Fold each of these.
Amino acid sequence: MKEISQAVIRRMPRYYRYLGELIDSGVERISSSDLSARMNVTASQIRQDLNNFGGFGQQGYGYNVKNLFEEIGKILGLNEKHNIIIVGAGNLGQALANYIEFEKFGFLITALFDINPDLKQQRVRGIPVYMSEELDAFAQKNRVDIAALTIPKSKADTIANHLVDLGIPAIWNFANVDLELSDKNVMVENVHLSDSLMQLSYNIVKNKKEMQTGRSNV
Amino acid sequence: MKEISQAVIRRMPRYYRYLGELIDSGVERISSSDLSARMNVTASQIRQDLNNFGGFGQQGYGYNVKNLFEEIGKILGLNEKHNIIIVGAGNLGQALANYIEFEKFGFLITALFDINPDLKQQRVRGIPVYMSEELDAFAQKNRVDIAALTIPKSKADTIANHLVDLGIPAIWNFANVDLELSDKNVMVENVHLSDSLMQLSYNIVKNKKEMQTGRSNV
């Protein structure tokens, strides 16, 4: 399989999102230049990105929106169902469990796990919360494709490696640390909220300086 | 001010995080090659990234950890306080309000806003929840540096533009849509959870295929 850069992959969900919106508004066909204007990327970038997967347009005819949407869905693995467990049923874990959008894309949250006895036998949007000691048995009985890790960073490495030992092939990591895993085949996707906030803060400060030096139109 | 690519900026919080951990473990000085081994990026990448800001190491002496940590903090604007309001006090909004780590970096959540009357006069970790109609008065009386947008995507553009009209200079967008704002000087940082999950799913499917074709060591 040809190696495609993660920068390209990172853009694919955005294409998928925009194509979904086009379908919702009844658009059947779109040129790469129209798509480019909507998405605020160059038409050549779009063609290059899609060419990584064989390309889907015919010169002069543009893209068939529904077809392209489905093909990108397949590329992203959205034609398969993915079972997710959430490890850490605190505020963030419960927020994820409550987020129904994920199901639309084939991501099904099947259970939450926590150490807090107050959460025992609770449910979040009908999804059961189990105690941590029930995790091993659950993972042996049920297919788990992704574990979302919504726990403090101090425990993240230990628990993540335990999930790896249980054979869980992918971790969606919300702990504010880069996991060090024993098995390099396990896929990790990080959501580092503090990093994201710092990037915003950099841009705020930079923008303020530019306004002071008169580069802005304000 | 020299334009620095967002790819470089995206890596800076990670340097900051690693340097913070080094300080916590009592390390005072580190070579770019040691830092590179820990962070799993090349030493030349580290030097290049930091050279964007003038460079902070002396050849052969490595970096002074505390000094570099503070300098990167300044670059990221963490020497200033940032007041955040959360617009949308549902599960995700409350999860953000409960997250105390942000305060450590100077991000202070000052209020939540929602349309749900059940939340009227509630507090989340002591932070007041106000009704949406109180937003304008609040923003006029209090400095707001960042609005976190944790609302459904159908309302995101309208509400975001209202926040822009109120003079709020930055939006931390959790709605699953790219905002179309009337003022291009407003900074936007997106946290698209579905996109992140799709990227993970792409890598899972790719990994599975590679294992089947025997490229993996499993």
Amino acid sequence: MIDKINKFKDLQKKLNAYRYFFWLMNWDQETEMPKMGLDFQLSNYQILMEEAYKLETDKEYTDLLEELYLNKDTLDDDLKVEIKHLYKSYQIIKVVPKNEYLEYDMLIQGASPIWANAKKNNDFALWSETLEKIVQFQRKLTKYLETDDKKGYDILLDFYEDDMTVEEYDEFFDQLRTQLVPFVLEKTAKKRKINRKFSNKIFDINKQKELSDYLLDVLHFDKNRGLLKTSVHPFTSGLASVDTRITTAYHENDLLSNIFSVVHETGHAIYEQQNDKRFDGTNLHGGASMGIHESQSRLYENMIARSYEFISTHFQKIAELFPKQFKNVSVDEFYRFVNKTERSLIRIEADELTYPLHIMVRYELEKGLISGKIKVKDLPKKWNQLMYRYLKIKPKTDSEGVLQDIHWAGGSFGYFPTYALGTAYAAQIYHKMDQDINIKKQIKENRIDNINEWLKEHIHKYGASKTPKEIMLIATNEPFFASYYVNYLKDKYKDL
Amino acid sequence: MIDKINKFKDLQKKLNAYRYFFWLMNWDQETEMPKMGLDFQLSNYQILMEEAYKLETDKEYTDLLEELYLNKDTLDDDLKVEIKHLYKSYQIIKVVPKNEYLEYDMLIQGASPIWANAKKNNDFALWSETLEKIVQFQRKLTKYLETDDKKGYDILLDFYEDDMTVEEYDEFFDQLRTQLVPFVLEKTAKKRKINRKFSNKIFDINKQKELSDYLLDVLHFDKNRGLLKTSVHPFTSGLASVDTRITTAYHENDLLSNIFSVVHETGHAIYEQQNDKRFDGTNLHGGASMGIHESQSRLYENMIARSYEFISTHFQKIAELFPKQFKNVSVDEFYRFVNKTERSLIRIEADELTYPLHIMVRYELEKGLISGKIKVKDLPKKWNQLMYRYLKIKPKTDSEGVLQDIHWAGGSFGYFPTYALGTAYAAQIYHKMDQDINIKKQIKENRIDNINEWLKEHIHKYGASKTPKEIMLIATNEPFFASYYVNYLKDKYKDL
């Protein structure tokens, strides 16, 4: 058995090395690759992707995987969880015919520029054909993978959040629908007065970059083990605690967008930088699930950086960088501006209170697309209907509607609901952490490192070696309850 | 035979795909990788390097290569040259034992940070052990590869410049020693008055970046097929006409360093962007040789961008970006400043006239290291002696002496002499092109595109499908003569 384990580990290391290069290639493509270099990059990617696929489907490797899976209870803890993860992904390779798998992979590799172009030109028709192919593959995939217990969208949901089902998500979103949506609509019923002190101002990009750098230091992002760059859509990317990369996007007319993108992605990054180093490069590096990962980014973004304590502590630095723009602006005004809430169209710009409603729109659309009840061609119309149902507003263009998100271009169906779930996890985690270390005191004393340390010990160090349900138990001593989230939001926004 | 050719081409494509990833990894390492990510990157590199090595030494591949080499005269022109190139590199793999080859490769992958650290700390001892290993491998390599016709340093010289030998280089450098060195020493005998108008000035990095961007456009660098970034040491990097990347380094107290780095690397890049697209990703992409490549970067840097016509055409833009620094500076003053010549320590900052003397120092040291007449431990002393012999100056520290260049850390022995040779090629090419299109007129009318076009037709489009000797004949209708270079320098500098 020892020999088999060692042989398996060797093969897995080789696969992980390919994964490293695919990661690097993707990072390059998203952050700097010259436009005309795409086809050349893809042609090289395709060749090595086939090499990796060959290795992954080689009988020697799959026999070992099957055998180790059968004997998983005899393995050490790390290997046992790793085998479980790998066996899950292996199911896809096992059931999807090779040509379909590789064809889909190439489709996804080339999809994001097509989506970006459609969004830029506000033309859903430029995108619908590719999206249709992606959806059809996802539907086919659920057919290939279905069992007596698990069918359809449940299968996709489980990829992003272990053991989560339509039933559980429906219950979660029902709670939000009954307890939160009326509150949100009431709070956002009156169109807010626009604070003229912040509109129509220009914030120099180089000064914004200086502020990003300051925020990285405040949050104790480790620059020797990571970097910040720009891309169209901010994201976090990495396969090891020693190399965790994040991006942001700068907009001259919007200071907050960059501030909270940087904090959000830094939240993701600190999670990965604080993973136990022994997980580097393996599939135990990363987060317990997308939801747990998002809980961390949201915790830093909303609960730390949008708190009065954070805003008041760092107000002086911001005002120094933009003295003209902050002339006659008080801390209280800036705090209220940072937490302003309104019905808006763009998810990534949505405020903390209305955000889950954006996710409910996407969740219902994905459920319909995968079940077949919604057709790709009807998406723009359906999108607009749902936006009206929950937020009582309608997009004027598809660019600010159905074309706004990159996720479907990456083949991610079942991912969106984890955003809302993750934010809800965050509220419960915050509640517990606050009992231990008085979070607002830490923020006021500019000791985010103490918050990082608590999260490291209770969540981060475990990487992907625990399930989300295990992590919630470890971190909060109880299972997940949506009520923490509803209470947190009502409490924060009742007087704002 | 057709089947064998196709099989060979398939295998070669796979090897080229690995090469693409090694290229990307190296680009990442040099331009942005977080410091602590190095070991993780190297561990992944090592695994895929072994995969590529396996493929390259696989009997199926090497048998095909040997057979195609034997039958090279029956192949089409592209394939014939490609096979010749590959056969030449294959000799290394053929004769060097696998463990030595892979060990050396890992040594080189990790060497550049060690060198950088030694340079930063001005401590040759931190570097000498690694350098010693590299030199020993190079010496061993020449033993492995030696034939009746070719021995020692000749073998290394030939890697960078087809068919060049110690004998030919000695003759070339002798001409410079007798005809140029006395002229240079005479021109630089008097310590020049420092022009106070340019010293002690600060040039904002963001403004310098704006100027870089302007220069890329002036030179018609294609931004859709390339990009400019920063690194410690400027370089050009790419495997295809559709993706050619360059770097520069910014120094707040030095405007010229960035200007001429950008132009220099753009010269390299335009060569590669103008390669025939059919060579993309193959070993026929690139330049005919290091010398021919350098001839292009030097032509753009020295002969175009340091010309009176270029300086006067773009002076206004520069003065607009730095109005305070250029107050009361005339075009003529700036032109003389740009072409100031003096005995200096750092090769990459050396002026056009003294530059070849820096190369003579390195040529003699490499010759001695490879023959065994010079020991690594004696390098700092020898370096300083030769600097005094040719330039009559001595470095005060090893950082500005023997530690200044990255090349040996990359295992490049035989590369340096191509810099001087390339500059000499450039003079001859310039002479011929000027007869066809009146270069100064093109520069004055801001039509660098016409210069690019001439170079594309006479040199660039051929990529690496011709030898340097063939390229000189195609471009200038005669073999190489050093006299063009000597005459060019004497003519330009006699009145400056």
Amino acid sequence: MDTHPPTQTSANPHIRQLVASRQEGYALPRAFYHDLALYAHESQSIWRNGWLFAGFTCQIPHPGDFFTLNVEDDTLIILRGDDEQIRAFHNVCTHRGTLLTTEAHGSVRALVCPYHQWTFTRQGELFHCSGMQEGLDKSRLGLHQVQLETCAGLIFLSFAHQPPAFEPARQSLAPLAMPQGFERAKIAWSKRYEVKANWKLIWENNRECYHCNVNHPQYIKSNFDIYEDGQLSQRLQERLAVALERSKNEDDELAISHRQGGLATFPDAEHNIWYAANRTLLTEGYLSESLDGQRVAPLMGTYHDERGGVLRLRTLPNFWCHASCDHAVTTHLLPLDLHRTLVRVTWLVHEEAQVARDYTLEKLLPFWQLTSEQDWGLCERVQRGVNSSAYLPGPLSILREYNLDAFLRWYLFQLSSWK
Amino acid sequence: MDTHPPTQTSANPHIRQLVASRQEGYALPRAFYHDLALYAHESQSIWRNGWLFAGFTCQIPHPGDFFTLNVEDDTLIILRGDDEQIRAFHNVCTHRGTLLTTEAHGSVRALVCPYHQWTFTRQGELFHCSGMQEGLDKSRLGLHQVQLETCAGLIFLSFAHQPPAFEPARQSLAPLAMPQGFERAKIAWSKRYEVKANWKLIWENNRECYHCNVNHPQYIKSNFDIYEDGQLSQRLQERLAVALERSKNEDDELAISHRQGGLATFPDAEHNIWYAANRTLLTEGYLSESLDGQRVAPLMGTYHDERGGVLRLRTLPNFWCHASCDHAVTTHLLPLDLHRTLVRVTWLVHEEAQVARDYTLEKLLPFWQLTSEQDWGLCERVQRGVNSSAYLPGPLSILREYNLDAFLRWYLFQLSSWK
Amino acid sequence: MDTHPPTQTSANPHIRQLVASRQEGYALPRAFYHDLALYAHESQSIWRNGWLFAGFTCQIPHPGDFFTLNVEDDTLIILRGDDEQIRAFHNVCTHRGTLLTTEAHGSVRALVCPYHQWTFTRQGELFHCSGMQEGLDKSRLGLHQVQLETCAGLIFLSFAHQPPAFEPARQSLAPLAMPQGFERAKIAWSKRYEVKANWKLIWENNRECYHCNVNHPQYIKSNFDIYEDGQLSQRLQERLAVALERSKNEDDELAISHRQGGLATFPDAEHNIWYAANRTLLTEGYLSESLDGQRVAPLMGTYHDERGGVLRLRTLPNFWCHASCDHAVTTHLLPLDLHRTLVRVTWLVHEEAQVARDYTLEKLLPFWQLTSEQDWGLCERVQRGVNSSAYLPGPLSILREYNLDAFLRWYLFQLSSWK
């Protein structure tokens, strides 16, 4: 197996220079958090080329149901058609550009532009534009569509004409994600954060648990993330063995796939793998990622018990998920500018679960609300530091920041391989 | 008569390219709403070259009366001198640049700079600067003046050293505007809007009534704008004939000049005509542009009755007016930046009309307040749409958007003909 | 003595052109208040090259005491070490750049990064970084330090590797400043202003009292600043003689050094002197710069009486001070951007003075709060004026604006002599 990163050099000399300026094993130089030309290049090579998580199929169960999503200056309408298929359209009238809808979600028989009443079907075709001259070719005036894929109830879209193949991601994610039942889930809560940090700093934070011990007192109790291999005491090895025994499961899709301490390796920069799914162990006393480790909602999807541990999903550049047997929490990133990132954290439960009767927000939210907000605070603090003219990238820990390093390698490869 | 647009190509290759990128009969490409270099070029070729509406002579009836006006980073003092003449000065001391006044309007014996008390006459000459050395040539330190013209009580100014001739505009506007009596009017109300849209989108909206039927339920009842020629039913032709009969008037200046449905053509891009005045019909039951069609104030100017219909004035790039026999409503634009335009809507009545006794704001304002705000909402919605990377200009309606197309041709000609 | 300015021409053609565009004896052209490239050049040649006032040694009397200071995107920690020495460090962890502290001031045993607990001594060395690989060379991972000097209780720092010599400034400032006792003072009050004006406009305002008569009714009563030489009436010469007699003092450091009306000349552009200290006369009835001229706090430092007049200190580009026998008021500038300057005004009294018992803010603050705020208002008004496209620099008064002219010559020399 080839472990050397595929070598690529960008045709853009400025980008080539920036990429070359990063010293192996070190954090990124200051320009990576400040350069507007780089930011524009990232937009093209990563955000508008790759697959972006957009939402959940359970948000729009019926034909005509839609939700909207803003990505940079674009707004998209994610709409279920008469044929039950979900499509993504630019929310822009093909006459003079008016926004078709300003609603965050809703249900429509047709999309009617409020300016001059041009009317589009739920499949995006123009079928009515009274007041226009004879002979107009309506077939060329349908809504602009972007690529869309669904996978186990998750919706992904890409602005690229020829995006990377989605199939390998589906094969990797779907088997593990299907039992979670995203297709028949409901959104119990969703919180929007405007984090004053470059999007990469949020991933860098996500890709190491070196910072967890002091900063995440709640989170570290539920799992073995901070115990990196080779550092495991006898006591910890026993705890791991007990946890593995407790989670034994005949079903492959429910089996714990990351059977040790520390973090599963991700991404695989050398093979350009931007997606991953695994199942990790909960510690003794934890049935779910909640403050007291107890379940906080009815079982989701096809789970029969708590033996599935925690399902972790990740897709670069903008999605991760921690899901327990009873609820799932997803994190969804979108850059707002060089120094601000929109983050949406969403809590999902079984679609039939009723608040007050089956769950309460007081129990459901705190574990990931606390952990997330602790991280956003750290990311903002790093942003302020890397703004400094005196910031120089320091060495990364081989023991604790290997995934961060892998993320940086993956990222630099995206920059370099963009034509 | 030559109906081909005078051909001109800008010496600036970037502008030339942009102008060439517009497809005839289609809306403007995205760059026209986003490009900062174009915006700077517009500033020079249109806003600082042409004649800008600035206000009304009735605002400053006596020597020493002034009002100020901000245009981009400049502030101007429009001041009536001892000789009764109105002049426009830059509100900037010729010593070290201090703003002479921060008031919106007032009355002064002289303009005294608060910093070091340099003092200027009401004609703009420096006559006092105690503390300066002997031998200073005061005659070279008068206030910087810009060109100013008045026409039937309307004040226009130009930053250009050699602006386009104003005389043809005066000849066209003054005869129809004089009877309205702007010289002896008073401002009953004025409302400032910061519309989040490029200034051109506001004109594009103004130049067609294709959008009126659904968006302006109040406005469409009072006039025949939405009934474009060739589409008139027998019933409508009868209504037009009745309205014309009712408005019959021996006085040429009060005669209805647009005697049909739809909009009068404006601008005349092919002859570079940036000004227009006409009189249009009110529908049956309408004596004034008010919600119930009834008069809302005493007769203005030299009107004897309601037979003058609606006086419509327009001057590009920043003024239009709808005036009934009893009140006038003017709209005054100034760009704030690429995506924001300051709009001031002003309601005028006879100078002797007293609120409560002769008119109420409850009756006077709603017709044009509603119609204006409906339009600003649409313009902002188009701006958000044309921000989208997916926006592509669509085809214009030959039947309903011919004036919008004329506006675009006029606009492109201004860009191209600027040296 | 050579009174010609040392001639220098910048290697940067844009700067060279700007410098050449200023007409001798006139205010600066508009571009000096608007050009971003110039602003960046100023940052390098003046703000990051020279010595910046940072604060007072009395703020951090004990080892481990610190305060922070923001300069552009940098934050600095000014920290007293175990060896009692004061140092300035960039507030940036050498691992991944996190801000070490977000506090304005405090006291620490060591500087511990909250992200991964890298720990630095109070002298800035890295001594703990658990989780990192063996063999890391900690000696190369200490905090980034900047140059720092203290002088009579005032702290100055420079970002330059080779800043201008500080010794001449110390020799000039220390003898006159020592008696004021900044080392054993306390900050009674401090007020932060965000002045919407370019930093140069604030110095230009500071360097002339041509504007004082009308704008500073309180200030002008306490001193002879507005009475420029050659303009002194018999009556004023008598008042000066009386004031000099009243201030007679055997101690050289307490002697009035500016023994006439008007302003002492500063800066000395021709010899590139950026620092000055002098003592000026108070008028009859004034013992201190207070509204009623009475003392407002106990004597500071080694003063025995009020005969020392007013100690005035100035260092370009960011500090001046007016100190009476009983209190000192310092003004501290830092540019925020082209059109905004952060100004901090600080009132100091003897460290043992207790509020309510020994002084009240009601008596201490108004004199300089009023005078300062009058000036900020003027500066903002000039900024708005020089924004105008019509602003042209006017002639300076040889009689009243000679120090302003000297400031401009000093400033232009800094721009030109920067390599």
Amino acid sequence: MTQPDARIVDLFAGTAVASWKQNLERLDAIFAAVSDDDLQKEVAPRKNRLFYLLGHLVAVHDRMLPLLRLGARLHPELDEPFIIKADRTAPDTVTPAALRAAWTEVNTALTTAIEGLPSAAWLERHEAVSAEDFAKEPLRNRLAVLLSRSAHVQFHTGQIRLVAKQA
Amino acid sequence: MTQPDARIVDLFAGTAVASWKQNLERLDAIFAAVSDDDLQKEVAPRKNRLFYLLGHLVAVHDRMLPLLRLGARLHPELDEPFIIKADRTAPDTVTPAALRAAWTEVNTALTTAIEGLPSAAWLERHEAVSAEDFAKEPLRNRLAVLLSRSAHVQFHTGQIRLVAKQA
């Protein structure tokens, strides 16, 4: 691969990163406006509580650190209650305050690392694809993970907005 | 701007287009598996019906054709019932069959045009920004619209999935 024009590559990466940040900031503002009591609301009858979705999103974003090869996880203990187990299948072991702190901590670490990644590095493989498979499937890159997780943020934001106002 | 490396630009654009198509195909499969009767279901009590969200998504995607400067709209008549008016504020004037046909027609036209756009053209301005403003804010490009509307698809997919199974 010859050296690409730096500006065009920066614009592609910059547009994708701006979209990620915008989606995340909107959801962050929504959660910030929800009281701890209201985190117990379900997005629809017998569906996930806001509390569970908050923990779920923290855990999924925490997993993005190694998946994007940006660093080690900060809160692997959240997988069990918020990814492996369904909502309300076990007592809550995390307080709302601790969960909110983890949400901010993980998103800050992740977005800082995302912003520091050189633009062309978005086209490098993500951690879950082998070098051999990646040679055949070059779209399995870090950018695909960012877009997929951005989609995941929006998927749950749509649900959360059913019971929480736009901030 | 010097000529960029074609492959790296294709990979950036290709990853974003693949993400758009994947999100849209998943939602298309979900709608295809919902019966016309079940389109009357609300995603949550007193929230939008699936029927309304289907029409809303057709109208928003139809607007993407001029917004991305890819062509004229196909169904501007859907704005009134599905963007301007809220759900159930007027009798339905479109049948489920007509709405499903418009959904397929619009998405096919849009995705064909999206796939035909040269990679570097994603960094050109979208229709809603003036050339003057775009010179100052180069992230207001076609790619930003694609990512924003991809986010919109996911926002409503999260809601639709509360009452419709993954196909």
